[in-house]
Structure formats: C-alpha cells, structure tokens
Predict the structure of Bacteriophage lambda head decoration protein D.
Amino acid sequence: MAIEGTLPAVFKVLPPTTFTAAGGTVGRVLVDQQPAAPGATPPLYGGATLIDLTATSSDATARDLMLYTASVSTVVGSASTGAAAVTIQTITRVSGDFIADGWRAGALLMLFAPANAAPQAAEGVLAIVTGVASQTLTVSGTPFSAVGSLTAGTRICQLAPRFRATIPASAGSDGLSASVGLLNHVRDGALIRSELKLDAGTLLVAAPVAAISALPTWLSLSPVVALY
C-alpha cells in the first residue's frame, strides 16, 4: 500500500560553524533558512531536518553551548517593515507593526544578517524583550553595543531554547577523546530526539555560555541536514 508523504530530497553537509575567544558569547547560525526551490532537481518545498550535529573542541576547558531554534518574525526592508535601526536598548522601524508580527514582552531576540551576507556588529546578541509598541521593541538592559541602521534583509528572530550541552575539554582534538554528537542529547526535550525539523522560516542557532579560551583555541560544530 502506498503512503503519501514528503520525503527528504537532498542530504547536505553544511560548512562548520566555529567559535573563538573573539566572539565572546555571541550566537551564530548553524543551519540557515532553507527556502523552497520548486525548479530544482529534485524540487524542494522548503525547510530541513537536522540529522547530525557534531561538536569538536581544542579548548582545554570544558565549554557549555546553548542551542536555539530561531523563527524569523520581522525582516528589515520588506514592504511591510521599511527601514529599521538599533540603539543600545531598542529596535525601531518606520512602518509596519511589531505587535502584528507576534512580538510580546518576555520573548528572546537575536538579529541576523541576510543569509550568506557579512555579519553585522549587533547580530547574535541575546536580548530579552521588555516592551512592545507598534514600531519599537525595547529590550532589557543595554545589550547592543553597535548602533545605527540595520542592513536591508536583516532578520529579527524570536528564539526558543532547545537545550544546553557541555562539550568536554579537547573533545575530538587530542587523539584521546571523541567528538560529541549533539543529536539525541539527553537534555533535548523534543519528543523525537534523533532529528530536529526546521521549517522554511526557522534557523538553528548556537551560542557559547562563556567565551572560548584565547586563540588558537576553537570550538566547531558540524551539521548535516536533509532538505525537503
């Protein structure tokens, strides 16, 4: 009996994402948005499933990482948003409505440049939304050290924490210990722990809980996805 369903069309090893001391606790995108590509061979409908995620570290100190899924709620420069800017405590827009975009006090927020674009100075900084008005988001404290206009295409994302993982000292780099597989992690609250599904508007993000040790120390994450 035939069973209808959407099956993975392409398996893809993504470039590794590497953290060093210079980045502090700034978050970085591990798996970016995977848009639909109906004209591709085979056609893609958008979204991905994370099927492998491995952490390797040269840091002699064990380091914790937080993993988040990040939903793109507002895109700077879109027809409904217009231009936007960031101060040390606010994000403002000239048109559109943050409330209509689904922003609420208490949301976790990060900014990310458009896919494949150079990072912006304010991006990857975790902020907590404390106030929402039609054209202004106010966040707790003063997390943004870089201020000014945001590049068109900047994605203002709401984050959902997935889990916190400890990467042992020198995991996979000292010839004695193995790299760490982060899927099927015991602290992942997902009902299905062997995979993580991301729709076309969702990114997978990681951030060190504390800065990596001084260069040349590094911590690297290597994801593999199935595209739909």
Remarks:
- DSSP finds no helices and 16 strands in the chain.
- Residues 71 and 202 are 5 Å apart (CA to CA).
